[in-house]
C-alpha cells in the first residue's frame, strides 16, 4: 500500500492510511518485544508519547531497562539517538553545544559552532534531576522551542525531535527536582515497576545466554512524521472532549463548584490547559495503536494518570491521610467518567 503523507489526503484517504499506520505500529510492537520483556504498557505509553509529538519522563528504579527501551525505540522508529548522562557538573554547553575559535593557515580567526548531543532525533536524558537547574533549563528550552540560540544565532533541531528523560525515584539527596513549570513540558510521566516472576525469569534466561537479539527499523523519520500528522487529524467524539475537560478541570482545587469537592479538597494545585491538549493527543495516538479511528472514554481513563500525575500536587491533608496522586486520579476518573 502506498504510504501517502497526510497533508495530501482528504477525509476518505484517512481510513486506508490509518490502517497502514496500524500495521507499522504492530510491527514496531513485535520488534520492541524481542528485547523489552513484560513491559507492554510502558512500551505502549512511550510510543504514544512519540506519536503524539511530545516528550516523556520515565520514572523507575535502576535496572528496569529504561536505557534499553530508548535505544530500542530509536532503532525500530528509524531515529538516530544519543544519550546524555546528567551529573551535577554538567554544563548547558555540554548539551546544546558551543562556539570554538579556529585559526586559518593565513592567521585569520573565526568562531565555529560545534553542535551538542541535543542535535539528534531521539535523546535520552539519563537521571535529568541530577543536573543543576541551569543545565536542566537548557534542555527543557530546547524541548519547548525545538531550536537553540548560541551567540544570537538560531540553530534548529532535527525533526522529529523527542526527549525521553529518566528519573530515579530513589536517592534524592544531592538532586535538583524539576520545577512544576518544567515538568509540564513532558507530555507524559511513565512509571516503570518491577517485572513479575515469569517475566524476570525470561529476562534472566535470555539476557545471560551470550546471544544478543537485534531489532530492525520498521519505519523511517519521514514516515513517523506522517503518522504524527495523522494523529492530529483523527476525529475526537464530543463525549471524549467533554470527558477530557471535565477530568482536567476537576483535578484542580475546588473549581466550578463541582460535586467532587470531597476529592478536590486534597489538591494543592492542578493541571492547566496544556494537560487537556496532551490528553487529547494521547488518546488519539492510543486509538491508532489499537487500530481504531477515534478515541473512546476508555482511552481517557487509561491515560489519565500518566498525563496528569506530574501536573498535580497534593496538600498536607492528603499526605496526612496517606493519599497518593494516582489514587486521587483514579477517584476522579471514577467520579467523572
UniProtKB/TrEMBL annotation:
<dbReference type="InterPro" id="IPR041628">
    <property type="entry name" value="ChlI/MoxR_AAA_lid"/>
</dbReference>
<dbReference type="InterPro" id="IPR050764">
    <property type="entry name" value="CbbQ/NirQ/NorQ/GpvN"/>
</dbReference>
<dbReference type="Pfam" id="PF17863">
    <property type="entry name" value="AAA_lid_2"/>
</dbReference>
<dbReference type="InterPro" id="IPR027417">
    <property type="entry name" value="P-loop_NTPase"/>
</dbReference>
<dbReference type="GO" id="GO:0016887">
    <property type="term" value="F:ATP hydrolysis activity"/>
</dbReference>
<protein>
    <recommendedName>
        <fullName>MoxR-like ATPase</fullName>
    </recommendedName>
</protein>
<comment type="similarity">
    <text>Belongs to the MoxR family.</text>
</comment>
<feature type="domain" description="ChlI/MoxR AAA lid">
    <location>
        <begin position="262"/>
        <end position="329"/>
    </location>
</feature>
<feature type="domain" description="ATPase AAA-3">
    <location>
        <begin position="55"/>
        <end position="188"/>
    </location>
</feature>
<dbReference type="Pfam" id="PF07726">
    <property type="entry name" value="AAA_3"/>
</dbReference>
<keyword id="KW-0547">Nucleotide-binding</keyword>
<dbReference type="InterPro" id="IPR011703">
    <property type="entry name" value="ATPase_AAA-3"/>
</dbReference>
<dbReference type="GO" id="GO:0005524">
    <property type="term" value="F:ATP binding"/>
</dbReference>
<keyword id="KW-0067">ATP-binding</keyword>
Amino acid at each position: 500500500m502506498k504510504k501517502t503523507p497526510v497533508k495530501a489526503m482528504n477525509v476518505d484517504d484517512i481510513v486506508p492510511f490509518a490502517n497502514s499506520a496500524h500495521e507499522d505500529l504492530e510491527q514496531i510492537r513485535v520488534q520492541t518485544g524481542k528485547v523489552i520483556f513484560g513491559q507492554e504498557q510502558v512500551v505502549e505509553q512511550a510510543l504514544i508519547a512519540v506519536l503524539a509529538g511530545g516528550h516523556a519522563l520515565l520514572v523507575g528504579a535502576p535496572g528496569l531497562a529504561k536505557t534499553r527501551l530508548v535505544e530500542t525505540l530509536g532503532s525500530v522508529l528509524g531515529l538516530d539517538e544519543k544519550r546524555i548522562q546528567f551529573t551535577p557538573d554538567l554544563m548547558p554547553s555540554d548539551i546544546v553545544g558551543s562556539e570554538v575559535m579556529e585559526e586559518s593557515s593565513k592567521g585569520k580567526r573565526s568562531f565555529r559552532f560545534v553542535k551538542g548531543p541535543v542535535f539528534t532525533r531521539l535523546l535520552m536524558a539519563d537521571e535529568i534531576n541530577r543536573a543543576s537547574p541551569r543545565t536542566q533549563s537548557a534542555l527543557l528550552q530546547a524541548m519547548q522551542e525545538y531550536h537553540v540560540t548560541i551567540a544570537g544565532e538560531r540553530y534548529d533541531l532535527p525533526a522529529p525531535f523527542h526527549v525521553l528523560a529518566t528519573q530515579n525515584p530513589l536517592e534524592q539527596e544531592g538532586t535538583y527536582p524539576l520545577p512544576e513549570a518544567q515538568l509540564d513540558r513532558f507530555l507524559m510521566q511513565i512509571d516503570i515497576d518491577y517485572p513479575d516472576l515469569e517475566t524476570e525469569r525470561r529476562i534472566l534466561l535470555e539476557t545471560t545466554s551470550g546471544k544478543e537479539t537485534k531489532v530492525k527499523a520498521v519505519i523511517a523519520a519521514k514516515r513517523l512524521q506522517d503518522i504524527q500528522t495523522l494523529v492530529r487529524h483523527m476525529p475526537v467524539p464530543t463525549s471524549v472532549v467533554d470527558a477530557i475537560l471535565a477530568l482536567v478541570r476537576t483535578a484542580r482545587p475546588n473549581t466550578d463548584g463541582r460535586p467532587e469537592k470531597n476529592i478536590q479538597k486534597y489538591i494543592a494545585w492542578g493541571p492547566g490547559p496544556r494537560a487537556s491538549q496532551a490528553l487529547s493527543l494521547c488518546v488519539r495516538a492510543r486509538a491508532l495503536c489499537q487500530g481504531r479511528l477515534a478515541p473512546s472514554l476508555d482511552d481517557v481513563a487509561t491515560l489519565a494518570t500518566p498525563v496528569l500525575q506530574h501536573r498535580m500536587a497534593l496538600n498536607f491533608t492528603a499526605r496526612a491521610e496517606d493519599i497518593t496522586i494516582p489514587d486521587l486520579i483514579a477517584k476522579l476518573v471514577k467520579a467523572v467518567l
